[in-house]
Amino acid sequence: MSTVNLLNHPDYVAAAQCPRLLVVSDFDGTLAGFAPDPYAVTAHPDSLRALRNLAELPGTTVGVLSGRHVAGLQRVCPLHKPVLMVGSHGAEDRDGPTVALNTAQQNFLDTVGGQLEQLAAHHPGTYVENKPFQRVFHVAYLAEDDPVAAQEVLAQARGVAADGYPVTPGKNLVEFSALTITKGTWLQQQKQRLQADAVVFFGDDATDENAFAVLGPGDVGVKVGEGDTCAGHRVADIDEVANVLQDLVARRQR
Per-residue pLDDT tens for 164-184? Predict the structure, then answer.
């Protein structure tokens, strides 16, 4: 579905005009592009401006919901309160972790992290990111030089035993999590907490499908880019996300 069709879709028009709206966006691939160094990305200035403006409007709650840990998200996403800043797929907010790891979960992270570090040591251009609740194996640097080799190493990383814990593939990465919290569980909780009449959610990757899956009638899920999705709408890239966000501002200001 094109941006033009989205902006004229009855669900989008109704959501933009509803009394209590929750607008949530992923960060990487949605508000910003990708880079081998995850801290070398720049968020789209028009999207940032639109999110700030939306957050100041009555009856409108805005959040950025990312798989990045909150400290890392704040390094690349310069949005302040009242915008909600949520990391680790919903397990952290600006005030820190919202859950605590038990011994078994911490042992899992230590074990899987050690195995991934061993793999990375044998493959230059790969590395392990240690997040509070996840361990993430990255191959983006290797993919720049040898995409085939990068996917082969990524397949090896996906084969590391997860002992029943969630494993989520991403773009040039695979994530092992000690939690069952997802973007979907967080989005459901926030919609209920705020008694939001509608949700507009933007996302581009596998973890965002958990959020798209919990959207109800009248909510608007917007998939960014190519790939299979259960979202009801699609835009091409981060420029089109910025266009939609600016349109939301204009409609709610009216």
Answer: 999 999 889 999 999 999 999
What is the b/e burial string over 120-155, where b = at least 16 CB atoms within 10 angstroms of the residue's CB?
beebebbbbbebbbbbbbbbbebbeeeeeebeebbe
Cβ distance 168 to 206 under 8 Å?
A: yes
Angle at alpha carbon of residue 83, lines to 78 and 84, rounded to 5°: 105
Closest by CA position to 66, among listed 36, 41, 92? 92
Query: Which token pair is 118?
Result: 């061993």
Distance CA 211, CA 226 (A): 17
Is a pLDDT exceeding 80 seen at residue 237? Answer: yes
| pLDDT over 80 at 2, yes or no | no
Q: Which two tokens stand for residue 7?
A: 């902006």
Name the phi and psi angles at 176, rounded to 5: -110, 125
What tokens appear for 95 in the block? Answer: 């005030």
* CB contact set of 147 (below 8 Å; sequence gap of 6+): none
Task: Assess contact for 44 and 242: CB atoms under 8 A.
Answer: yes
State pLDDT tens for residues 74-109. Answer: 999 999 999 999 999 999 999 999 899 999 999 999
Maximum Cα–Cα distance for the chain, whole Å? 58
DSSP state of 207: G
Which tokens is 109 given?
């992270």
